[in-house]
Amino acid sequence: MIFDLDPSQAQKQVDQLRSDFASTKILTKTVDVTDDVAVTEAVAETVLHLGSVDVLLCFAGVVECTHAIDMKAVDWRRTLDINTTGTFFCAQAVAREMIKQGMC
């Protein structure tokens, strides 16, 4: 399951993955990774569709293409919220699910 705020922006790459790994079920889910409740719900939905959560790869991230001297505080906080907090929420929700599954 691939979580993204807008999965459609990577549709070409998702289609390529589905082609390259035809025997693998690859799904996408619209999720704001900065929302811990939404992430927890998305992990639960992943289990419903795929049966379990066996691994987590965190690639959540954005970059601000602004020189650091010119970056606004709101942009810095958004970057940290997605890249750091979002990664933590995903890891936390998946760890809870793996514990439930008896994997940890």
Q: Care to describe what's here?
A:
By secondary structure, this protein is mostly helical. The protein has one domain (2-100): 3-Layer(aba) Sandwich (Rossmann fold). The protein is built from three helices and two strands; from the N terminus they run βαβαα. The longest helix has 28 residues, at 73-100. Helix 2 crosses helix 3 (73-100). The chain is globular, with a radius of gyration of 15 Å. The model has no long low-confidence stretch (mean pLDDT 94). The chain has helices spanning 11-20, 36-50, 73-100, and strands at residues 2-4, 28-30.
List key phrases describing it.
single chain, 104 residues, mainly alpha, Rossmann fold, two-stranded parallel ribbon, 3 helices
Q: Spatial order of the strands in the main sheet? A: 1-2
Q: Biggest sheet: strands, sense, closure?
A: 2 strands, parallel
Q: How many discrete domains?
A: 1
CATH architecture: 3-Layer(aba) Sandwich
**Silhouette:** globular
- Percent of residues in β-strands: 5-15%
Report how far apart the termini are. Answer: 20 Å
Mean pLDDT: 94
Number of strands: 2
**Which topology does CATH recognise?**
Rossmann fold
- Relevant CATH superfamily: NAD(P)-binding Rossmann-like Domain
Rg, Cα atoms, Å:
15 Å
Run of helices and strands: EHEHH
Estimated structural class? mainly alpha
**Percent in helix:** 40-55%
The CATH class is identified as Alpha Beta
Low-confidence stretches: none
| Separate helix tally | 3
